Amino acid sequence: MGAFLLVHGDREYVRRPGEELQTDLGVLDVPEDVEHGDELETHLGEPFTVRELRGPDLFEHFERTGAPMMPRDAGLVMGHTGAGGGDRVLDAGTGTGVLAAHLARAGADVTTYETDPEFAEVARENMELGGVADRVDVRAGDVTEHLDELVAEGPFDVLTLDTGDSPDVVERAPELLTAGGFVAVYSPFVESVRETVEAGRGGLTDIRTFETIQRRMDVGDRGTRPSTAGVGHTGYLTFARKE
Q: Which residues belong to any copy of the tRNA (adenine(58)-N(1))-methyltransferase catalytic subunit TRM61 C-terminal domain (predicted)?
């Protein structure tokens, strides 16, 4: 069973059934049969509401091994590829595992590669935390070294990449994907976008790149305007499709 949020005011803690929470508000033992919506009390009588972990909560509470994919980028990947129930997804550059978890929560079966074995182990723990470990196969290794065997394992419906060697994988995308399957590549730098697009022109169609920018709005008594805080730009997303 996955974990739950324990909420008290603006405080949020993540615990699994059977685990203990210790705070200045007291000690709370999470029962094995806990359910979404339950109210639990610490030994000091402080109430906590049990809330089911949702997609945005994964971004906030997964253990991080680097900068996780932002919700805006994960949403674009899912929206432009249509990844969902019954799809097989090959993902590379697992990192924290936010994208893999979102895909699995939508019903896809995900095979994901992470080059750092320690990061891969953290990602496996995050999949357990998110309740999607049965849908996400986290593999430690460089995906480019396993392409031949992955072609044999395929075909995949969607290919998602967040690695420096994404163009090398994109070149093999026509072999990895089923007919009509999609590729989504996240690039932090515009230079890698050109390499990705050129790699895709050998066998993919409908190649498009978007810069992801989001502005938060501040709503106050004096009026409403875009926030001056934070960074609006996150990166570049390139999408393509196999005919």
A: 85-219
Contact at 8 Å (CB) between 158 and 134? no
Whether 222 and 108 share a structural domain: yes
- The helix-helix angle for 71-81 and 98-105 (nearest 10°) equals 50
Domain boundary among 13, 29, 52: 52
Contact 55, 62 (CB under 8 A): no
Instruction: Give the mean pLDDT per block of 10 residues along the chain (243 residues).
Output: 84 89 92 89 92 84 86 94 96 95 96 97 93 96 96 96 95 97 95 95 95 89 86 90 94
Any idea what DSSP says for residue 167?
H
How many structural domains does the chain have?
Answer: 2
Which residues lie closer than 8 Å to 86 by C-beta, 6 or more apart? 107, 108
Residue 31: give its domain's CATH number: 3.10.330.20
Hey, what amino acid is at 60? E
